[in-house]
């Protein structure tokens, strides 16, 4: 099934959860195991990517081992990496709308678009918006970060994504952020949108997940939590807060 259809169907049942696996944080076998746990506890999709220092080899091997061990869709998340992975279930076609560098808005995308077309890879178009603190992802993407209290700016970028025809809006606080995107901002953005809203960065506990979901996130991404001790139980409690 197409990934987009799969997500649409999942959204009809409630919140969607995505586990982000960073190939630079563990060996490929361990990444496969993490993905298996994520699927077991109820994650709906896996993103592979999200790191600056990942080698092409680590990325490819991780992607392969993750694919082998699970049946939920695996998507390539191309932020911050020069490496690329084309053989997954879909490719996140991200445009970092608040970057100061046009390379992250459409430049790199223009270089890979025809390859994706020729390989007939499914793409999901996403308006990616970096909110403070943005962390490493914000730095690499040369983002002009949306301040945490500037709801109007977040709404402006989110509607820009929607009016440009993008399928999803993604509010990102950054990998490893101390706190998620503020609930008030999520609520304000969600009120204006008709496309699904993805929220990621800094979501570590069931309380965070519930707050983000209740504010209006349709899709919630967590990464770091799977790299910490007791991750199975932590992820399980995040999932039950999201799916309750
Ligand atoms: C993916 O950056 C997030 O959108 C993941 O962030 O590692 O803080 O969960 P965490």
Please, how many helices?
9
- Mean pLDDT over the full residue set: 95
Distance N terminus to C terminus?
26 Å
Order of helices and strands: HEHEHEEHEHHEHEHEH
The CATH class, by name, is: Alpha Beta
Query: In angstroms, what is the radius of gyration?
Result: 16 Å
Characterization of this structure:
The protein has 9 helices and 8 strands. The protein is of the alpha/beta class. It has a single domain (3-243), classed as FMN-linked oxidoreductases (TIM Barrel), CATH 3.20.20. It has an 8-stranded parallel β-barrel with strand order 1-2-3-4-5-6-7-8, surrounded by 8 helices. Strand 4, helix 4 (102-119) and strand 5 (123-130) form a beta-alpha-beta unit. It binds SN-glycerol-1-phosphate (1GP). SN-glycerol-1-phosphate binds next to strand 8.
List the helices and strands and how they pair.
Layout lengths: L2 H11 L2 E6 L6 H14 L3 E5 L6 H14 L4 E4 L12 E7 L5 H18 L3 E8 L4 H6 L10 H13 L4 E5 L10 H10 L4 E4 L5 H10 L3 E4 L8 H13 L1
Parallel strand pairs: 1-2, 1-8, 2-3, 3-4, 4-5, 5-6, 6-7, 7-8
Helix pairs in contact: 2-3, 6-7, 7-8, 8-9
